[in-house]
Design a protein that fits this description.
By secondary structure, the chain is of the alpha/beta class. It contains 2 helices and 5 strands. 32% of the residues lie in helices and 33% in strands. The longest helix has 13 residues. This is CHAT domain-containing protein.
Length: 69
Amino acid sequence: MKSARIINFGDSAEAALLSAILQQLGLRVTVENVGNPVQFLETLNEPLQVDFLIISGHGKSDGLYFGEF
């Protein structure tokens, strides 16, 4: 079975929808919610043991947008 990992920052509804669609297509999905740039980078540095890595969030002209923290 193929697997996907969704790293989510921002609106969790998008990640939930992506997860549901991928599960319907037969993939095993894990969703990881991160709240700041440090957590995001730590999550990206973990060993990748999935077939697909999806980053769910929003960006601005100067990079990723994590909101105010």
